[in-house]
Amino acid sequence: MSKKKTTQLLLLSTVSLLTPFMAHAQEATANKGQLEEIVVTARRTAEALQDTPVSITAFSQNFLDRQNIQQVDKIAQFTPNLVISRQPSSLTAASILIRGVGQTEPSAVAEPGVGMYLDGVYIARTGGAILDLVDLERVEVLRGPQGTLFGRNTIGGAVQLVSRKPTDEFGLEQKLGYGSFDSWYTKTTINTGFIGGSPFKATLSYLHRQKDGWVDNAQTPDRLDPNALNSDAIWIRVHGDISDNFKVDYSFDWNDRKGVPPYFQLVGASQAVATYFGRSESLGGDPLIFTRKRLRNGLQEGFTDRNGNYRWDSRAKAQGHSLTLEYEAGDFLTLKSISAYRKFSQDTILGLSGNGDLLGVVFDGTSPTLTSVQRVTTYQGNNAPQKQSQYSQEFQATGQVGDINYVGGAYYFHEKAREFNRQFLTLVTTPAGLANLGFPTAVADAVIALNPGLDLIGVNAFPPASFGGTAESYAIFGQVSWRPSALDGKLELTGGLRYTLDYKTIFIDNTPPTPNVTGHQDFTNLSWLTSVNYKFTDDIMVYGRVSTGYKGGGFNPRTSSKNGFDPEKVLAYEAGIKAEWFDRRLRTNLSLYRTNYKDRQINQFASGSGGATSIILNAGKAVVQGVEFEGTAVPVDGLTFSGSFGYTDAKFKRFDFRDPATNTVIDVADEARFSNIPKWNWSVAGQYDFPSFGFGELSARVDYSYRTKMYFFPLDRVNTFNEDVASPGQGTLNGRLTLSEIALGGSGAKMEVAVYGENLLDNDKLAYGIDFGGLGFGGAYFAEPRKFGVDVKFNY
Fold this sequence. Notes:
By secondary structure, the chain is mainly beta. It contains 5 helices and 46 strands.
């Protein structure tokens, strides 16, 4: 690390320690004077957040419920160095990155860089990462490689979703809400208590969400406007205490979504593309819409799907089953088995044109002039079917022997996935340029001769993309922590290892005469961890850890040839301090990190006559370093201040790039950027719980989050509209007023009412951009404008 960077990090650390009023509001107060203790399972066993030597943000059930968080992407507002961006055309796909490490490719065979887990079960595809969060007990965001206990594809970290456990007594909870854009939801949760004197109890939850889009598409009714959603979700959890030392848990989740992707606006274009599509209105078509300003009205064409239906909407279904068996032989040994099956499917209308029914002059071999006016588009299509299924089995053994705590186990994972993309795009060129698109020179000359004065012509293309593959993984792992009693348990030394064996296959169905492609590869990896932590007092702990991570290699499906690539590996260093002060009225957590990349996988997105394509290669070396701070403060009873910040400095040390002009590999590290990474992100909040009114308890909360500019592609020389589609610095201001504990008669039933506003400053927040540089344009979609709503909850 350079002296300059070291100085910057030390200064940031000093600022963190000198700003204890900044804290993180996801932790509600246990009472109006002390902070709530949160239990996490970051090391596969339950322990207090403040005793866990890992950089973690944990969201309690109370916070998730009060903030009405129904999708995982919303937690990024409150988590340092976490970016979750919804992919434009899908209802469920997300790009998830922690500390700049993750994956932006949403294909059915792409490996994520941040692991997503639901009740201990790995959700393998980013395509199904955004699901309805129906009934959660907590969310844990683990930053940094988690390769020892969580395994492959957690080089950036892991996000754990933990569903709420059934209660011993019968209970009913009903929650309703209504807000801007005719959005409404209803959620019903039933706790059965122990069923008929048996050792089993269950929780059943149902959530329905529905809203109109906030961009008015003149071609559709409100229910089919961009951003519209109609979603149903069911979660079931059954717990059985078979005996004092044997427990059974079964979890089921099901989510059926229908909706319209966000409005993907044209925000950048070459002169030729802007001129060509700009002539649509004069030819009898819709006008070209081309602006970087967030639109509330527009035109969005549909697409004829594989069944011959002209549609605007996308559809997705996901479901999962898991069975956990746990046997406690004693403090020295607990055995656990987690068996799981999940499947996911989606049928998406891509909706990436941002325009209506455009008309243009195109090449037409059946016309006497070799041209005709036809429907044209920048890019549109239908991804269907996209399907994925997975089975996993994990065995764990945990326990304590003397001063030793241990975790060990074995893991198996098998997956099948495939997808088929139908694409429609118009290539814009000069008549002479037809020769560059594969047309004979004589044809180009004939078009010029038959159409004097024609300067631009379109070529409609309908390239299909069909691919799929399998993944199979085996692993054994172990981690041991030694806490010597001679030092009163203040010192802990930890070491861990995980050995992984992966098998990958790929098939790509090409259009004749290009031959189909098949391939297979296998990879092995040994990940390790070593850490030390010391508790100076019961409330102050320092820690340091060195760990490695492994992201599986494989094949790139978005090409017509066999483009294989090797695994991506990281070596990460982290040091931190976790502290509580003033009888748990103040909590401050600080961490500094440095991650060294080897064989970083770079997705060089491209576009052209083959549609949306890419090349994945192991581009070289990189270093990511930064700092994170979180905390919570209760200066006086009832008042909570909160805040966090993250800083990320990411640099390529080597970036191998094949120059298409010379066909030679050159190092472009000095011009390459890390994508999907803001350098700074921070949040602040304040909440006041008023003294009881006798008929209820009133609380008010305001929070503000901000992140700096973020690019979506690494090289401007490849993605010429990278600057146009980049997301500028942007902030979000939210507010909520809640009246809770309202008694309903003498039955013990209670009611809660909340009113809220989100994005109160109505900022134009560019959420995600794609550069279709090879097609001459770039586009982006914007996050929701200002909105208001009311939530009502009943507990019986």
